[in-house]
Amino acid sequence: MVCSGLGGHCSSCRILFFGQQEEGRSAVCYGKGNDCQYREQHYRHRNHRACDLGHGRYPGVGHREQALRRLQQRGEEGQVIAELDKTNLTSELNTAKANLASAQSSLSYNQSNFSRYATLYKQGLIARSDYDQARLSYQQAKEQVASARESVQKAQTNLGYATITSPIDGVVLSKSVEEGQTVAASFSTPELFTIARDLTNMQVVANVDEADIGDVKTGERVSFTVDAYPDDTFSGTVKQVRQEATTTNNVVTYEVVISAPNADLKLKPGLTANVTIYTQESKGVLSVPSKALRYTPEKETVGSKTIKDVAHAKNKVWTVEGNTVVAHSVNTGITDGTHTQILSGIKQGEQVITGVSVKTDNTAQDDSGSDSGEASPFAPHRPGANKK
Fold it and tell me: Is the model's pTM score more than 0.90?
């Protein structure tokens, strides 16, 4: 028997997110996880949502005048996607330019006046205080010109913000405002568009339990399924293991970023992904069902056969050789809970015992080693089972 992909861990994460975050742009993450369950080295976390996208943002206040980008439309970086009402912004720029012109005129006058006072002062025709006053007025006029230039620059910058361009090449997924709607930025920047850079290269964020995060490394193989395509299995690779911990209902988890190709564009935002991360993997190895290691024969179950045991064996499996049930001491490797790797002790092709069926009174009872054979006192009994 050949066992491959042993020792994997599973996780369920909410939403696939995609693209590369543009430098200087913000990523938006929202949502929370709950309903955590743990069973046989598999962990599931549901209702997680995250996005790593480019956003068209406006750091100011205004009225949206035009919407130049439609949903599902592709665009290039720097392409205009919307414009705000520029009436007030243009007026502010014109006012700043007028103030600059006035300050420059005042500077020209004070410069000429200071030159005259300097000549008169050298000839001893005016007092020192008049000369100092003319020099002070000249210096203040220069500072007013510098301040007016900064005001013009600020007004030009604000006017430039009214033209919103795409921060990345990609596809418009959503828009949060309509034409004529007021947008305002106070403590947070309003989000106008959500743009995906590259839908052919998706990313999955899985929350991994703290007990398993030590086994997850960058570059490990990942497989996952989505409810939209239950018969398809998608593959990926661990791209990043983030260091920040998240605590939800006293459960500590760490985010693992998984890169997954999406050439056929089947994967879409919002899909639920059930993820398996292969932390250990061996191919072409000898393995047995794990319940074969838990089986122990008893005289009542083997009938007339003889039991031949081995002493001080940490792990052993049983085979039938003629009229004898023989124990074999084995060394085990990794396991996925269903199959366990056998390093030594038996050869390929040997049949091992995983359980026996005992027939009593026309009934058959399976003794596979996984059940204790004890019936619950609260379970209903077969009629006549208590008769002796």
Answer: no
